[in-house]
Amino acid sequence: MTQSHEELFQRYTYAGAIARDPAAVADLFAEDGVFEAPLLPEGHPLPRRLVGRRAIEAAITDFHAEPAYDGPVDTERSRYVLHETDDPEVFIAEIDTVFALGTMSLVQIFRVRDGKILLLRDYFAA
User: Fold this and answer.
1) What is the 3-state secondary structure (H, E, C) of 58-125?
2) Among candidates 23, 17, 11, which has minimal Cα distance to 112?
3) What is the Cα–Cα distance from 37 to 6, expressed in whole angstroms?
4) Coil, helix or strand for 20?
5) φ and ψ at 123, to 5 degrees?
6) pLDDT tens column, 62-115
7) Distance in angstroms (rounded) separating the CA atoms of residues 63 and 117
8) Nearest Cα to 107, choosing from 57, 37, 42?
9) How far apart are CA 75 and CA 3, in angstroms?
10) Which CATH number is 5-123 given?
11) Which residues pair with 103 in a beta bridge?
12) Is 77 exposed, middle or buried (0-12, 13-18, 19+ CB in 10 A)?
């Protein structure tokens, strides 16, 4: 059974924002999957581009060692909207994640195939 974009996005969100499990996040990517965060400032602990599951897992492990926000995600107030595109491998997520001390708004563009993330462009500024 093929998972929907909604299911993949929910698994990605749970693994990263809720469970904070770098291995689970990395497992959602293809072996040579790419994670990009083009808006991150130079010197940010998370690199702007990561290639491959191992690199993704290692960088997210380091990033989670010092959380950017205090407290857990407020799942009741956080919201997202998924947008399907004409390309069945591409979808876009608009996200407002609410934390105890504020809200992070971002856009993520996913390219997926066979249930794995090939490319994730994460437009957020930390």
Assistant:
1) HHHHHHHHCCCCCCCCCCCCCEEEEEECCCCCEEEEEEEEEECCEEEEEEEEEEEECCEEEEEEEECC
2) 11
3) 21
4) coil
5) -95, 85
6) 887 876 566 677 888 989 999 999 999 999 999 998 888 888 889 999 999 999
7) 20
8) 37
9) 22
10) 3.10.450.50
11) 98
12) exposed
**Length of the chain measured in residues:** 126
d(C-alpha 100, C-alpha 28), whole Å: 28
Structure tokens at 24: 């689970």
Are 119 and 111 in contact by the 8 Å Cβ rule? The answer is yes
End-to-end CA distance of the chain, in Å? 36
Q: Which two tokens stand for residue 28?
A: 């959602």
**H or E stretch covering 34:** strand 29-36
What's the token pair of residue 58? 């290692």
Measured on CA atoms in the order 11, 108, 45, 66, is the torsion positive or negative? negative
pLDDT in tens, 18-61: 888 999 999 999 999 999 999 988 888 788 999 999 999 999 99
